[in-house]
Design goal:
This protein is mostly beta strands and 271 residues long. 0% of the residues lie in helices and 55% in strands. A hairpin with a 3-residue loop joins strand 10 and strand 11.
């Protein structure tokens, strides 16, 4: 599938955290000298994006907790960046194999509910006096990257309860989100997207897969940021899959609901 470049709209800001560590006994004005045996990480966050190549920070994210771990760090070293702040600093022991992680929360000071996390922790191979390090972290939803394939699909109930917030775009490999549900033979199921917020002028697709996770049983495409629904009847009992796929130019946070009830041969409905 061809994917198009796009600009970042006001619904999102870029989830790029650029970290620079410095040491050598100097210091950042107002922070004093760096203690012996330590380096300093300066965390910079862009609110909003400077380009369209990064993943997304949801507009609901009000604070980002940064966590540094590694050998010789018995307790994780943390700091919190509250929007719209753009910088924070951490003093960490010199050494190798430092890892920098991040979590996004829907309230200031890492309060409320965690709704995002780093796609993966960023490695800092070495922190030493006088060195500078640049590391990029990407924030995504709590289920990535496992749910990029059906083997890591998020289990969803069939009582119509919406899922948590999921994020999807056509950057890197984040083109698909998979969900797993249990179906009963002859029962009808409606799969509906809700609360879409984001950017794009292209399309996304909802696709229902058989129990093997690869055979398509029903599908339809919808315009970006427009809610859509697919109705399907289960041919037999089992665990099936439904996936949201980015087709063209879509960057969105959304919820998915699966509701059981009814029978019939209706393939697709669109709100």
């Amino acid at each position: 599938m061809r994917r198009l470049a796009k600009a970042v709209g006001p619904a999102f800001v870029a989830a790029v955290l650029t970290l620079a560590g410095c040491g050598g006994g100097g210091g950042v004005p107002g922070l004093g000298p760096i203690p012996d045996g330590h380096g300093r990480l300066t965390i910079k966050v862009k609110w909003p994006a400077a380009d369209s190549s990064s993943r997304l920070i949801m507009t609901a994210t009000q604070s980002i907790k940064v966590i540094v771990t590694g050998p010789g760090i018995p307790t994780p070293i943390t700091t919190v960046i509250n929007a719209p702040q753009t910088t924070a600093t951490l003093t960490v022991p010199v050494g190798s194999d430092r890892r920098v992680d991040a979590q996004g929360f829907d309230a200031p000071d890492a309060g409320g509910t965690q709704i995002q996390k780093a796609y993966q922790a960023a490695p800092v191979p070495e922190v030493a006096d006088g060195q500078t390090y640049n590391v990029t972290l990407y924030l995504t939803d709590l289920w990535d990257p496992a749910d990029d394939t059906h083997t890591g699909a998020t289990t969803i109930p069939t009582d119509g309860t919406p899922s948590g917030w999921h994020v999807i775009d056509d950057v890197a490999t984040d083109w698909y989100d998979y969900f797993k549900f249990t179906a009963v033979a002859g029962e009808g199921y409606t799969f509906a997207t809700q609360d879409l917020v984001g950017t794009g002028t292209g399309q996304y697709a909802l696709m229902v897969f058989d129990t093997d996770g690869s055979t398509v049983l029903a599908s339809n495409a919808f315009d970006a940021m427009q809610p859509g629904a697919v109705v399907w009847s289960a041919p037999s009992d089992g665990d099936y899959f439904v996936s949201l796929w980015v087709l063209y130019d879509v960057r969105t946070a959304y919820r998915l609901a699966v509701a059981a009830g009814g029978t019939g041969d209706i393939d697709v409905i669109v709100d």
